[in-house]
Each structure stands twice: as structure tokens, then as C-alpha cells.
């Protein structure tokens, strides 16, 4: 019987303490989430959103010289021989190379 009373008291104290702390826990969780967002650079992204030449990942977008499609810099193919032109695929790179070769030939003639 005594044990039941002690358990009830402990449970009630626990409930009261939890109820009192609850708003602080929510604040602490929000602060932690903000800290994590700042560390990963997500906070900056969330504030500015998608703007200009920045993609959803915050990565710089590059335009394909051949077909004109926009793609993330990491996925772009760079042709250093032609002054750093970027392409979306090897097809576009080849097309552009063929085109520039034709232009060179016509310029010689
Ligand atoms: Zn392309």
C-alpha cells in the first residue's frame, strides 16, 4: 500500500515537472534545429529561397552551350579545349565540337 502511494507521488511529480519543462523543451528543440540548419547552410537557403541562378540544392546552375538547358554545375560536362564551355550531355558536347569544326573549316575556305 505504501509503495503504491510512493509510486503515485513520483508519477505526479514527474508529470508536473514534465508539464513545467514542456515549453522549454520545445524552445530547445527549435534552437537545436536552427543550429543544425546554420551548420549545414540550410538556414541561408531557407531565408532566400530559390532565386536567380541557384537551384534547389543551392548549387550554381550552368547553361548547356548546345541546347541551352540549365543544369547543376556538378552534373555539367566541361569542355576545357573550347574555353570552358559546359554541356548537359556527351551528345551536346559532340554536337558542339562538330559544329565548331565545321565553322573552322568554312573559315579556312
Ligand atoms: Zn545540351
What does this structure look like?
The structure is a single chain. The protein is mainly alpha-helical and 109 residues long. The protein folds into 2 domains: 2-48, no CATH class; 61-108, no CATH class. 59% of the residues lie in helices and 11% in strands. The chain has helices at 2-39, 42-48, 90-108; strands at residues 61-63, 70-72, 77-79, 85-87. The strands form 2 sheets. Strands 1-2 form a two-stranded antiparallel ribbon. Strand 3 and strand 4 form a beta hairpin. The chain is rod-shaped.
Q: Which ligands appear in the coordinates?
A: zinc ion
The largest pleated sheet is described as:
2 strands, antiparallel
Distance between the termini: 108 Å
Structural class, by secondary structure, is mainly alpha
CA-based gyration radius:
30 Å
The total of helices stands at: 3
Please report the total strand number as a whole number.
4
Secondary-structure element order, N to C: HHEEEEH
Integer tally of domains: 2
Shape: rod-shaped
Query: What percentage of amino acids are in beta strands?
Result: 5-15%
Helix content: 55-70%
Average pLDDT works out at 82
Spatial strand order of the main sheet: 1-2
Low-confidence stretches: 46-51
How would you briefly describe this protein structure?
This protein is mostly helical and about 110 residues long. About 60% of the residues lie in helices and about 10% in strands. The protein contains three helices and four strands, in the order ααββββα.
Secondary structure elements and pairings:
Elements: H1 2-39, H2 42-48, E1 61-63, E2 70-72, E3 77-79, E4 85-87, H3 90-108
Antiparallel strand pairs: 1-2, 3-4
The structure holds zinc ion (ZN).
Zinc ion binds at residues 64, 66-67, 69, 87-89, 92.
Amino acid at each position: 500500500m505504501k509503495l503504491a502511494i510512493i509510486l503515485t507521488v513520483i508519477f505526479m511529480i514527474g508529470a508536473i515537472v514534465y508539464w513545467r519543462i514542456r515549453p522549454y523543451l520545445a524552445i530547445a528543440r527549435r534552437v537545436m534545429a536552427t543550429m543544425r540548419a546554420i551548420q549545414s547552410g540550410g538556414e541561408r537557403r531557407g531565408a532566400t529561397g530559390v532565386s536567380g541562378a541557384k537551384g534547389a540544392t543551392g548549387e550554381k546552375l550552368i547553361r548547356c552551350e548546345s541546347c541551352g538547358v540549365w543544369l547543376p554545375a556538378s552534373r555539367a560536362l566541361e569542355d576545357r579545349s573550347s574555353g570552358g564551355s559546359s554541356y548537359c550531355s556527351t551528345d551536346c558536347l559532340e554536337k558542339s565540337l562538330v559544329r565548331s569544326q565545321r565553322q573552322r573549316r568554312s573559315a579556312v575556305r
